[in-house]
Specification:
The chain folds into 2 domains: 55 residues, Roll (2,3-Dihydroxybiphenyl 1,2-Dioxygenase, domain 1); 84 residues, 2,3-Dihydroxybiphenyl 1,2-Dioxygenase, domain 1. 18% of the residues lie in helices and 27% in strands. The chain contains 3 helices and 9 strands. The strands form 2 sheets. It has a 5-stranded mixed sheet. The chain is globular and about 55 Å long.
Length: 163
């Protein structure tokens, strides 16, 4: 493997994630109906593309190789989670409200100093992180200026109060 010493362009972004799902309607029930993404295109029962704010798609969902399939077993390689960044703490609180109203169990909730995050699984067992970043000037730093990310408890009631 060749190592690159020149960093990637700082304006590079992750454009979208494409997930294999067992049942497209069930997946849309989560991403569209619970989280609130809009469907931008659908290909019958095989695939759908969803986004926020009119982008062509942030998440692709397909059954091309996975219709009726099972989630990968623990201990196997693959996707750990998809992280969905909300623009404000109030928007994250609204996402939490939606998830709880749908009866979806949380896997965890953490304050990382740089961000606040809620963890859960979609209906196909894909890990989902819903999070909000604090303003960069508020990120915790060590005396040498390096980031000091932490994992502390997130007060969900306090978060919900901002919805």
């Amino acid at each position: 493997m060749t190592t690159t010493t020149t960093p990637i362009d700082p304006d590079t972004r992750i454009g979208h994630v494409h997930l294999k799902v067992a049942d497209l309607d069930r997946a849309l029930g989560f991403y569209r109906d619970v989280l609130g993404f809009e469907v931008t295109q659908r290909y019958g029962s095989q695939a759908a593309f969803v986004s926020a704010g009119g982008y062509h798609h942030h998440i692709g969902l397909n059954t091309w190789e996975s219709r009726g399939g099972q989630p990968p077993p623990r201990g196997s390689t693959g996707l750990y989670h998809v992280a969905i960044l909300y623009p404000t703490r109030a928007a994250l609180a609204d996402a939490l409200r939606r998830v709880l109203a749908a009866g979806i169990d949380l896997d965890g909730a953490s304050d990382h100093g740089v961000s606040q995050a809620i963890y859960l699984n979609d209906p196909d067992g894909n890990g989902i992180e819903l999070y909000w970043d604090r303003p960069q000037q508020e990120w915790p730093r060590r005396p040498d200026g390096a980031l000091n990310m932490t994992t502390g408890a997130l007060d969900l009631q306090d978060l919900l109060a901002t919805a």
